[in-house]
Write a structure and sequence with these properties.
Blueprint: H1 3-18, H2 31-52, H3 54-58, H4 62-75, H5 86-96, H6 108-123, E1 142-144, E2 148-153, E3 173-179, E4 185-190, H7 192-203, H8 209-220, H9 224-240, E5 244-246
Antiparallel strand pairs: 1-5, 2-3, 3-4
Domain NGO1945-like C-terminal: 145-238
InterPro entries: DUF2063 (IPR018640), DUF2063_N_sf (IPR044922), NGO1945-like_C (IPR054098)
Domain Putative DNA-binding: 9-94
């Protein structure tokens, strides 16, 4: 068998395993062996996806869920060969390639992204540095934890489950999802102003907290004195939760 012939055989097998209902089966391979390969591929991929997206999985019938996974297998070309990155590939499929079906909830991509964020933080290799105590938080240089993500969704994804499935988007939902020092993944619900404060902390490279609060006050069109204490209290809570870290030089 030449290299070209071998490659063609591999492509035919891959095409069949992706979509066995529509793609022709490879010749000279008995059905018993084909079934082993079909089940192995689908069950492995489905297991990773259902394990990574348990809430999303719970919203579908068995048949509709299988159709969603089959669509991913057939319609998406993964950029990574690693099984641990299947969840991220599934997100890309839902956001960019999946054609919505009548059984798909309108929030399918957002809910999947939220569940993926929890999983990604759970397995992230970063470790938090030792906690730094500071007297005057306003003069300290603050940083967003590498294990904290500020997220915004059109749907309240943190509340969705079999008993609550909104049919239309309402007010945007702002969340910070983070991993604590005890390696527990948690979330805090935010309002738009607090979410923006965390974004400013995340993007800040050299200004003390008081300057960041001043920038937020300017964006909101509020007098600084009306915002300062509230913002400092919020930042103190985030420091206590390890959502925000104090730079080591600001002891």
């Amino acid at each position: 068998m030449t290299t070209s012939t071998l490659r063609q055989s591999q492509l035919r097998m891959a095409s069949y395993l992706r979509d066995p209902e529509n793609a022709p089966a490879p010749e000279q391979v008995e059905e018993r062996r084909l079934k082993v390969y079909r089940d192995l591929i689908f069950n492995n991929v489905e297991g990773f996806i259902s394990g990574g997206f348990p809430v999303l999985h719970s919203l579908y019938s068995e048949q509709d869920w299988e159709g969603l996974v089959r669509g991913f297998l057939d319609g998406h070309r993964c950029s990574s060969p690693y099984f641990l990155e299947i969840s991220q590939e599934f997100i890309q499929y839902l956001m960019n390639e999946h054609t919505a079906r009548p059984c798909d909830p309108p929030f399918v991509a957002e809910l999947a992204h939220y569940e993926w964020a929890e999983l990604a933080l759970d397995v992230a290799e970063e470790e938090l540095p030792p906690r730094v105590e500071v007297g005057d938080l306003g003069s300290a240089m603050l940083m967003l934890s590498p294990l904290a993500w500020v997220l915004a969704y059109q749907y309240p994804v943190h509340q969705i489950g079999p008993g609550f499935q909104p049919e239309a988007a309402a007010e945007p939902s702002y969340l910070v999802v983070y991993r604590s020092r005890e390696d527990e993944v948690k979330f805090i619900e935010l309002n738009a102003a607090t979410a923006r404060l965390l974004e400013l902390i995340r993007d800040n490279e050299r200004e003390p907290a008081s300057a960041v609060i001043g920038q937020l006050a300017g964006e909101l069109g509020m007098p600084l004195e009306n915002l300062r204490q509230f913002a400092l209290d919020q930042l103190q809570q985030f420091v206590h939760s390890d959502v925000i870290l104090v730079a080591a030089g600001d002891i």
